Amino acid sequence: MITQPVAAAEVGAALAEVVDGGPRGRVPDVGGPRVERLPDLTRRLLRHRGRRRTSVPVRLPDRTGRAMNGPDQLPGPDAVLRGPTFAEWLSLLA
């Protein structure tokens, strides 16, 4: 599965900007700065936490599986990309 993770603090800041700016119709999507693969993120997080666990990706069949690996999962072309990358976020964790 592909994803474009965005830090929760960045989502909060984007929502605050929308509220502060008043009504203006549809606002752009918010996404993280990079497209990532969810199984890779899981492995990196486990490694960062020092956990020796196996992470096995599960592929869903048919149309659902294709949809979860397609670009429709990602923010649109007019999206505002915010925040640290996943690697930068991991480096901030204690």
UniProtKB/TrEMBL annotation:
Top-level taxonomic group: Bacteria
Segments of this protein annotated with the region Disordered: 51-80
Protein name listed in UniProt: Uncharacterized protein
